[in-house]
Amino acid sequence: MKNLARLAALALTIAAPLALAGPALADETGSISGDVWLDSNSNGLRDAGEPAITDQWIMIDGTNIEAKTDSAGHYELKNLPAGSYTVASMDRSLLAGQGWTRVGGDSKFRADTGKVWSPVVLGAGQQVKHLDSGFATAKVDYVAEGIYVSNPAPKVGDVIDILGAAAPVGNVYDQFGGQLSLPDGLRVVQRLGGMPRYYATEPAGKISGFFYDRRSPGAVEWVGARVLVEKPLSAAELKFTVWKGLFGSTDPNTANDVSSATLTTS
After folding, report:
1. According to DSSP H, which parts of 76-214 are helical?
2. Which helix (H) or strand (E) holds 17?
3. Greater model confidence, 185 or 17
């Protein structure tokens, strides 16, 4: 019996340090939170009286982690371990005709992609607050800015450049493009301009381009061609038509959607 008692006491002595090793580890997960609002005057600032946007999804890019804003426009992404997170604010162009607000600085999300400018680096247990997202009700005037001709009076056999210009003028970033129409007698020898190709094979007499990524308001872009004059032309029409993006229905002035010029050759 004495031996058994000694063994039991020894067992308790060995076990005691394990039981008293220390308290359980504290929760070291963090969170990212903020507010979503309607930027009524499109100045990028959360001005007094501007309303909250409810039921807006905020997510972490490349994951299934997401949160929806409440009635006060507030969201919180919870239980995040330390790491780097690219946070995105869901597109509202088709849902509500709104784009990410672009100036002022109160919105922390890019106006062209809806993602934060740089990933949020979260420390263990850290809470990052005020990652706010603003939206503006879109109003975009899609403008055919004009037609440029390198030589307005060429001769048959000359090679000239013809380009059309377009711009989205408004309060949000948007897609846009355009199409230059050329008369018979001009043969395209080289595509010109910064607009990405729209057609793999262009329709006859057309040069087209379109930006699927959203461009800044007022950004003027060109599309056109270097052409060979193959026959005489008399006041032949050159036409450039702007192509509208996501907010095309908001265009307040459709009269400037097309630019025209004439070309006479000898």
Report:
1. 93-96
2. helix 2-19
3. 185
Reported as a single tens digit per residue, the pLDDT across 100-153 is 999 999 999 999 999 999 999 999 999 999 999 999 999 999 999 999 999 999
The encoded tokens of residue 232 equal: 């005489």
Q: Which two tokens stand for residue 261?
A: 């010029």
CA dist 162 and 141 (Å) reads: 24
Spell out the domains of the chain, with CATH numbers in brackets: 30-137 (2.60.40.10), 140-249 (2.60.40.690)
CA distances from 266 to 71, 162, 187, 209, 225 (A): 70, 17, 16, 30, 20
Beta-carbon contacts of 142 under 8 Å, excluding residues fewer than 6 positions away, are 166, 167, 168, 169, 176, 242, 243, 244, 245, 248, 251, 257
Nearest to 219 by CA among 114, 111, 130: 111
φ/ψ region of 97 (left if φ > 0, alpha if ψ in -120 to 50, else beta) reads left
Q: Using alpha carbons only, what angle is made at residue 137 by residues 94 and 252, rounded to the nearest 5 degrees?
A: 95
Torsion sign across C-alpha atoms 243, 249, 251, 257: positive
**CA-CA distance, 124 to 168, in Å (whole number)?**
44
pLDDT of residue 266: 84
Tokens encoding 8: 């039991």
Q: Distances from the Cα of 185 to the Cαs of 110, 148, 170, 193, 232, in angstroms?
A: 45, 18, 37, 21, 7
Residues written for the chain: 266
